[in-house]
Design a protein that fits this description.
- The complex is a heterotrimer of chains A (1012), B (463) and C (249).
- Chain A is built from 33 helices and 42 strands.
- With 1012 residues, chain A is an alpha/beta fold.
- In chain A, the strands form 13 sheets. In chain A, strands 6-5-17-16-15-7-8 form a seven-stranded mixed β-sheet, sandwiched between helices.
- In chain A, a hairpin with a 2-residue loop joins strand 25 and strand 26.
- Chain B is built from 16 helices and no strands.
- The radius of gyration of chain B is 23 Å and the shape is globular.
- Chain C is mainly α.
- Chain C is 47% helix and 1% strand.
- The longest helix of chain C has 29 residues.
- Chain C is extended.
- The termini of chain C are far apart.
- The chains are: A alpha/beta (1012), B mainly alpha (463), C mainly alpha (249).
- At the A-B interface, strand 33, helix 29 and strand 37 of A face helix 6 of B.
């Protein structure tokens, strides 16, 4: 982490921007073609060409290009058609370009790390971003930041690709013609001065400094009104708190303090803002390393299979409308005592009783979680139950809401839509967001926007909304803009840019507002001055400020508010229609804002393993009732709105519930996300955003082809995934499957020593994957992709079985023998599988050119540049973890973009990992580039590599610390201990290939009283 | 040394050395003997060969992603076709070398043709190992030579064994074939009236004058090469089978593979010889030299090897059951009942059931039946390779990595292309080289007691 | 009928047989030679540069330490190319209006970097780290040739894999210590050699070899024995040194 060089970062590099600005001035109001051509001229410089034409990202030429000119090229890069590189005997003369003034803190070839935050839905998470000679190349979690503890989720990893996305908006547009910042300001200021109804539409705002700007704006323009709309707004939670405590509050859960957890349709590992921290604490409560034999217990009632349900000890698929009854049942049992007579919906009374007992048995260390999609009343009730259980103050505390304005958003938005339709709005200023696409269908917001006399849209991409607005302004990505935000627990965090804006036309919301207020300021000054004025820091501001920048946050969570809930009597609505329709944010593309992100689109969704699509999830039972199968169409209709979307039959989905994921079917978005999946927003209602109880669902006509990475719902896999209960574990610690040919470690008769360590005191690398900790969240998959320059291959290729992820998370189902329908409620087991680096690897002897051989540190090395691509190694790999470049994926992405993508993406590549060419095999390397870096540093310091010094990308990002890596030859290392943990087993041990990766069996802790 | 008694029906009709020369050589010397049918077949074959050119060009431009291969199915039609062609390439050397060493006089009138077939088949086969690699332009790394990388190939890999096995096989077969051609080329040289042909054949026949010394050297060389190539017949397909037998892939690591593959190869080889000889023999009125006897015996060999192959199938099933390992049994059921079951059952039909017709002497005299049976055998052998190679790969140790395999348009295009190339070469051979060994037939005639005045006895088999 | 061939045909036939046999050999040798020739490797080919910079002048005549310009050579994988300001640190004082230095001044004023023609280059799939080689006492000249004598900079070695492996397989033949000042760390010795050469000190045969741009390679059994010892002392992990993933990943 480098604090020096802040100045360098905030320094205005006007002289380079001038070039582009000049071009833009000249071209203001002209048509596209011309613009590109003259941009090309800007880019007509040799080293840029050389670098663009190179088939490999030429490290030297990237890292040595002066950062500023380098930015200039990137500005122009969109204009360049793809030129395929020719390597070989006669290379073109390469240039080498030093700095003019080299930044002091910069050692050429060494990365720097900067702390910043990413905000999503108003909640900030601390990040640590790696910067190689001026460009961000990898996002990691900030280990000190309470919301991250060093972890990120898949979306945060993907943010890097968003930043370099060539489809990002780069031009100020007025009615689709090129405009300039000045011409915009002139127009806008005039309009604002004229007064009339001015409306400011933003997403949920959690940033104090932005809020201050908005306030100032509203003060300066009295006729202005601020409206918030966030597709994933947490109305239920805030309103629930208001009902329970008389004011909106932000519940913060402490899973370390919770022994029994009941999720009332709450996917706290997937949906809640604090999910990363929650995942870590929850997993810590289940760790069984060594002789620890205690773990927490999770009961999950789910209306849609989620991450929490996947790890739950007991899981019940329930209709969302049944959840209130369940909650009330628990409430009654806990409050009044005395066993319940009848259950709730499909949940028998006995179950509720024993759950309640279990909760009460752990007073103060139990937790009931209300679901995001559930009504406010349920949240209130949950608070009440927690209070009754004495959990408030221990396992759950309350802080002031993170949202600056915690008011319900729907009414305001509805009002705004009304005003717009009535043509009452003079000026509509939309900061971020994409209401034209993601506003609830009943508001007809797209038409509404058109009615505004004057409209501005500031956004990262030219999207559905931009197209309808008078002005479109490119927004800066968070990696290139100043700002701040609050974490799930209220911790204030500073957002600091890693790089000058790629496109000088881009501005942050902060800058825009200050400019509109005629007080234009840079983001840096705005943030700094705000916190100086707000006296955020005690003591010497300068020191505190620099520390805050260095750490990325200001220590100290939001003040805890002592509260006692008042319980309101509430008659829960009875389940109505035959089908209930549930809306969910997509775990990868969220509300659609990441739809143009190839990493996100290609990420197999946890339960379905579905890529490049959303689907209507229905249970096998309902599918039968509807007479549909996976891939057939479903017609869903409610209140005049109707959508047709393909079905995915998902075991574990509750009967009578259709789940639709938001964020797909984008119409205006880059070449990646265009028309991917189906848009379900039209069906969404502003007054019931998460649930439709009275929708009509019937089979439609037509077939649809999905691309999933697992072809069938494997109910087997018993011999590859070891799962058991805590009791079983006490009896049989390593869960030997009955039919296994032999016992635990190295029991095979063998002439070889148990572990093959070559001579010399070399470290022997090994890994453990704790399936008990893994929640299947996919963060590792994307982290690996980002670290190792793994290409995106596109839907058609995934459908062919050619996805390139080095680490995959296999999903197996465990079914209860007793239950009549094995698919009704199977328990999933997530098993991360990457190259296990067999000590006697079957892939090695079959390679005709020795492109894959063993290193003396026990790595199964894959040498891309030696590989001729016979694919024999992959055939002979029992784990099928090898990936083959069937086509020139990094460059030729036609097969899914419908056009050569600009080479800007090259900047995304990790300079420490070579990009593989067509026809080459690749696979997990245990992040050998990180190993080598550590080895060299250690050697220079004349010391051995320390335990924990080498951290693989998947290990670093994992929210639950399921992955451990290190030297297994060192008996004191953490990995060595875990490798010999009783739960440890080698995948496919019977093949005697001696994997270096050990999987730790999954343990469930069911309530003995309940027959699952 | 004289062979005890040679079945007189190996040469039919009223023959003397002159008629034999005439019958065979005139196919080459007198171009008028080629009817329209030659041009039609050749034309079609040529079109197919152009498919190959297109397919390969596109392949080199885009990469093997144009095929249906994926992970886990790294090898699909590419290797299936490779093994199939190599198999077909076996009859030639077997007939020429082994039957020669075994002193089987009936080989004399079919060996030339079979050898030619071998060479062309191996050429087709050779394309695949080269082009199936991701970066064919680096395939030379598979050869051991001192290089600026300071690296050697990985000699433990069966693919390296393949490189040597196949290239050796090709070289020796080519030499064997050419040596055999020398005296006949001389005959053509002397008989043709076309200056150009005479010059070419003259050069190619290396100044053959039929001197005693020439014959002496010839016999020695021929015998030596026969001795050399005999082990090759067995080794090549054994080594090809190692590609699979050596691996740990369920359905591949079967110790039975070497003999099973060789038998299959001979099976397919003879089937292909029959498929081609029967029409050619009719086209060029060679019925009296390639008699029903030949065909009968070839049919018998086909039957015998067919039974061996079928035994192989039974063993595979037995092993799967006997191993009692989950994955082997799963794979077995997968083959029987999975999405590829039709491939498996039609394979059993083609290779197991249909050849049994050859038990009946009557049917062995019916050219149409024989031809159809042989044709099914060729299909069956292709299916066998399909069932072994890609289908085994679709099932895995980790159920989660199962994926299906479906060949694409380009897979088929390439296959059709190689068939075209094969036919083109073969028809050029028929037209421009003596497709039956002239002097060996004469030699045979001599051993049978010299020129005949009256036609050989029995007329049966002319049906 | 007339003879087709003249008697000479026989000899032609024989000759061509020999020719066929020799053809592959000739082609092979030709290719081998070509791939190792400067035409392919650029070794010893000086290239035109925007500024006529002379290592001979700066290193040998003026005795400027390598690290003055190549600042990160001890810290990072990349040795570092001096930014314009480094040139100006002196040339703002001396030769302030030499026409030769016009491009440098221009670059400094206009803040536009100098664009040098690359001399030493390796493909992206090779990961070379300067710092560790320096740290183990591998001389600049071992790979770059007689830098201190180059008026125009040129490539010293072909950087072909077999050549890298010479040292990575037998480090003991390359690693050596300066007997006169053994107290110097191997890293310091790397640069000390230039000082000694410039100060015209007496150099050992091996150092001469080096300074003349030859590898610090030895066949002398005694030196090899010393080398073995040094390999131990420096903690060079011999077995893993030739592992593929030491350079390729």
């Amino acid at each position: 982490m480098e604090i020096a060089g802040q100045q360098e970062l905030v320094m205005d590099s006007s002289e380079t921007q001038l070039n582009l600005e000049a071009v833009r001035e000249k071209l203001a109001g002209k048509t596209g073609k011309e613009f590109w051509r003259s941009l090309e001229e800007v880019a007509e410089t040799q080293e840029f060409q050389a670098w663009v034409e190179d088939e490999f990202p030429h490290r030297a030429s990237i890292s040595e290009v002066d950062r500023r000119s380098f930015l200039k090229y990137m500005g122009a890069s969109l204009a360049l058609a793809g030129l395929s590189g020719c390597r070989g005997m006669f290379l073109p003369q390469k240039k080498i370009v030093p700095y003019v003034n080299q930044p002091e803190e910069l050692v050429p070839g060494k990365p720097l790390f900067y702390a910043t935050v990413m905000s999503l839905g108003g909640y900030a998470t601390g990040l640590l971003v790696e910067q190689a000679t001026g460009r961000p190349i990898k996002i990691e979690g900030n280990p000190e930041h309470p919301a991250s503890l060093g972890a990120t989720d898949a979306i945060m990893q993907g943010a890097l690709l968003d930043f370099y996305d060539p489809d990002r908006s780069q031009d100020i547009l007025e009615e689709g013609r090129f405009g300039t910042w000045d011409s915009f300001l002139a127009a806008a200021r005039a309009r604002l001065a004229a007064g009339g109804a001015i409306r400011l539409l933003t997403g949920t705002i959690g940033s104090p400094v932005l809020a201050a700007q908005i306030e100032a704006f509203l003060r300066q323009f009295p006729s202005a009104k601020w409206v918030q709309y966030e597709p994933g707004a947490r109305e239920g939670a805030l309103e629930g708190a208001r009902q329970a405590f008389g004011r909106p509050l932000n519940p913060v859960y402490h899973f370390r303090e919770a022994d029994v957890v009941v999720s009332l349709d709450c996917d706290f590992l997937g949906d809640l803002p604090g999910k990363l921290r929650y995942a870590r604490d929850f997993a810590d409560g289940r760790r069984l390393e060594g002789n620890d034999r205690t773990m927490n217990r999770l009961y999950a009632f789910e209306s849609t299979p989620g991450l929490a349900g996947g790890v739950a000890d007991h899981r019940w698929p329930v209709r969302p409308s049944e959840v209130p009854a369940i909650a009330q049942g628990l409430w009654a049992r806990i409050n009044a005592g005395g066993d319940l007579a009848e259950g709730a919906g499909q949940v028998p009374a006995a179950v509720l009783n024993s759950i309640a007992k279990d909760l009460m048995a752990h007073r103060g260390r139990s937790l009931v979680l209300p679901g995001e999609g559930q009504p406010a009343e349920l949240h209130a009730l949950a608070h009440a139950i927690n209070a009754a259980l004495g959990s408030i103050g221990t396992s759950v505390t309350y802080t002031q809401p993170v949202e600056i304005s915690p008011e319900p958003q729907a009414p305001a938005l509805r009002e705004l839509a009304g005003e717009l339709h009535a043509g009452k709005v003079e000026a509509l200023i939309i900061l971020g967001g994409n209401p034209a696409y993601d506003a609830p269908g009943d508001l007809k917001f797209a038409e509404a926007i058109k009615k505004a006399a004057f409209s501005v849209h500031l956004s990262l991409f030219g999207d559905e909304t931009s197209a309808l607005c008078t002005w479109h302004l490119p927004e800066t990505h968070f990696l290139e803009a100043w700002g701040d935000g609050r974490a799930y627990d209220g911790t204030l965090s500073i957002q600091q840019p890693l790089i000058e804006p790629l496109y000088p036309t881009a501005h942050s919301a902060l800058e825009l507002l200050s400019a509109l207020r005629n007080k234009p300021k840079g983001g840096y000054d705005l943030v700094r001055e705000h916190h100086r004025a707000a006296s955020t820091f005690s003591g010497d501001f300068e020191k505190a400020w620099r520390k805050a920048l260095h750490d990325g946050f200001v220590p100290g969570a939001g003040a805890v508010v002592a509260v006692t809930p008042t319980v309101t009597r509430w008659a829960a609505p009875a389940a109505s229609g035959e089908f209930e329709v549930v809306f969910k944010l997509d775990p990868s593309v969220h509300d659609g804002r990441f739809a143009n992100n190839g990493w996100m689109q290609e990420l197999p969704r946890p339960w379905t393993k579905l890529t490049w699509d959303n689907a209507a999830l229905v249970s096998p039972g309902s599918a039968e009732k509807l007479g549909v199968q996976t891939g057939q169409m479903l017609e869903i209709e409610q209140g005049g709105a109707k959508i047709v979307t393909p079905v995915w039959v998902l075991p574990g989905q509750p009967d009578g519930v259709v789940t639709l994921t938001l964020g797909f079917g984008r119409e205006k978005c880059g070449i990646i996300g265009q028309e991917v999946g189906h848009n379900v927003y039209p069906l969404r209602k502003s007054d019931q955003p998460w649930l439709l109880t009275d929708a009509s669902v019937k089979k439609g006509s037509g077939q649809y082809k999905f691309a999933s990475t697992q072809i069938h719902h494997d109910l087997g896999g018993k011999d590859v995934v070891r799962v058991g209960t805590l009791e079983e574990m006490r009896a049989n610690p390593n869960f030997q499957p009955a039919h296994a040919h032999h016992g635990g470690h190295g029991d095979l008769p063998s002439l070889y020593p148990k572990e093959i360590f070559p001579e010399g005191d070399l470290p022997q690398w090994g890994m453990t994957v704790d399936m008990n900790a893994c929640i299947g969240c996919n963060a590792c998959v994307t982290a690996c992709q980002a670290e190792n320059n793994t290409p995106v291959v596109g839907k058609s290729q995934v459908a062919r079985g050619r996805e390139m992820h080095w680490i995959r998370i296999d999903r197996y189902y465990q079914t209860d023998k007793k239950s009549d329908d094995p698919l009704a409620n199977p328990q999933p087991v997530f098993q991360p599988v990457m190259c296990v680096h067999c000590e006697s690897a079957p892939c090695e002897p079959v390679c005709p050119v020795a492109a894959t051989v063993h290193s003396h540190e026990g790595l199964n090395q894959m040498i891309y540049n030696r590989c001729i691509g016979t694919r024999y190694c992959s055939n002979n790999c029992p784990y099928k973890v090898r990936r083959f470049n069937f086509l020139d994926y990094p460059h030729l992405q036609k097969q899914f973009t419908g056009g050569e993508r600009p080479k800007l993406l090259k900047l995304l590549n990790n300079p420490d990992v070579s990009v593989r060419s067509r026809g080459v095999m690749e696979k997990c390397t245990y992040c050998v580039q990180r190993i080598n870096e550590a080895r060299i540093e250690a050697k220079k310091e004349r010391r051995p590599i320390r335990d924990g010094e080498v951290v693989t990308a998947c290990q670093q990002v994992c929210p639950t610390r399921a992955i451990t890596f290190g030297n297994i030859a060192d008996k004191d290392s953490k990995v060595a201990h875990l490798r010999h943990d009783p739960r440890g087993y080698l995948l496919l041990e019977e093949l005697n290939v001696r994997p270096r990766t050990t999987h730790l069996a999954k343990v469930r802790n069911p309530n003995p009283e309940i027959q699952a | 040394m004289a062979i005890p008694q040679i079945d007189p029906s190996l040469i039919e009709g009223k023959q003397n050395y002159g008629t034999i020369d005439e019958m065979i050589a005139s196919v080459v010397t007198d171009q008028k003997r080629h009817k329209r049918i030659w041009f039609i077949v050749f034309g079609l074959a040529f079109l197919l060969m152009n498919c190959l050119i297109v397919a390969v060009t596109w392949l080199l431009y885009r990469g093997i992603g144009i095929w249906g291969n994926n992970v886990p199915v790294g090898w699909g039609l590419d290797i299936v076709n490779f093994v199939w062609w190599i198999g077909i390439g076996h009859a030639g050397t077997l007939i020429s070398a082994i039957l020669l060493l075994l002193r089987q006089p009936w080989r004399n009138s079919i060996n030339r043709f079979a050898e030619a077939m071998t060479i062309f088949a191996v050429m087709c086969a050779g394309l695949y190992p080269l082009l199936h690699t991701g970066r064919p332009w680096l395939a030379y790394w598979m050869f051991p030579y001192t290089n600026i990388l300071g690296l050697w190939p990985q000699f433990r890999s069966p693919l390296i064994w393949d490189v040597f096995a196949v290239s050796t096989y090709f070289t020796v077969s080519l030499l064997f074939w050419y040596i055999g051609l020398v005296p006949d080329l001389a005959t053509i040289r002397d008989r043709t009236r076309n200056k150009f042909a005479r010059t070419i054949c003259g050069a190619a026949s290396l100044g053959w004058r039929g001197a005693g010394r020439h014959w002496h050297r010839y016999e020695q060389a021929y015998m030596l090469l026969a001795g050399l190539s005999t082990p090759l017949v067995l080794s090549v397909h054994s080594i090809v089978s190692f590609d699979f037998a050596v691996s740990i892939v369920p359905g591949w690591n079967v110790t039975l593979f070497p003999p099973y593959f060789v038998a299959g190869a001979v099976f397919a080889g003879f089937a292909m010889v029959l498929n081609l000889l029967i029409p050619v023999r009719a086209m060029y009125g060679l019925k009296e030299l390639i008699t029903m006897k030949h065909i009968d015996w070839m049919a018998k060999i086909m039957l015998a090897t067919g039974l061996i192959v079928f035994y192989g199938y039974i063993c595979e099933v037995f092993y799967a059951w006997y191993s009692a390992t989950n994955v082997e049994l799963t794979l077995l059921m997968w083959r029987f009942t999975g999405p590829y079951m039709w491939f498996y059952w039609s394979l059993i039909l083609c290779n197991g059931i249909i050849p049994q017709l050859m038990w009946w002497p009557k049917l062995r005299k019916n050219l149409v039946v024989i031809w159809i049976v042989a044709f099914f055998v060729n299909i069956g052998m292709w299916l066998e390779r399909f069932v072994i190679i890609p289908v085994s790969l679709t099932k895995n140790y980790l159920p989660a990595s199962d994926r299906l395999y479906m060949p694409t348009f380009w897979d088929w295009m390439m296959f059709a292309g190689t068939i075209g190339m094969f036919m083109v070469l073969l028809f050029l051979f028929i037209r421009f080289l003596p497709s039956i060994n002239i002097f060996e037939v004469k030699d045979l005639l001599y051993k049978m007691g010299g020129p005949r005045t009256k036609p050989a006895h029995h007329e049966e088999g002319q049906a | 009928m007339a003879q087709i061939f003249k008697p000479s045909a026989n000899s032609i036939a024989r000759a061509s047989l020999v020719g066929f046999a020799l053809l592959p050999v000739v082609v092979g040798l030709g290719a081998a030679k070509l791939s190792r020739s400067p035409m392919n490797t650029d070794v010893g080919v000086a290239k035109n540069q925007p500024v006529a910079f002379s290592h001979q002048h700066h290193v040998f005549e003026l005795g400027i330490d390598c690290r003055y310009c190549h600042t990160s050579v001890e810290k990072s994988a990349f040795a570092g190319i001096p930014p314009t300001e480094t040139c100006m640190s002196c040339h703002s004082q001396i030769w302030t209006n030499s026409p030769l230095l016009e491009p440098v001044r221009q670059s400094y004023e206009e803040q536009i970097p100098l664009e040098w023609n690359r001399i030493n280059d390796i493909p992206a799939f090779v990961n070379f780290n300067h710092s560790i080689h320096i740290d183990r006492g591998i001389q600049c000249n071992t790979c770059h040739g007689a830098m201190q004598d180059m008026h125009m900079t040129e490539k010293g070695r072909a950087f072909q894999m077999a050549w890298c492996l010479d040292c990575h397989r037998n480090p003991e033949r390359f690693i050596y210590v300066d007997e006169k000042n053994p107290d110097l760390s191997p890293r310091q010795q790397v640069f000390n050699l230039y000082w000694k050469y410039q100060a015209d000190e007496k150099l050992t045969p091996r150092e001469l070899q080096l300074i003349r741009g030859k590898e610090q390679f030895t066949n002398n059994p005694h030196e090899i024995m010393e080398g073995e010892q040094l390999v131990k002392d420096y903690g060079v992990k011999r077995p893993e040194l030739a592992d593929c993933s030491i350079c390729h990943y």
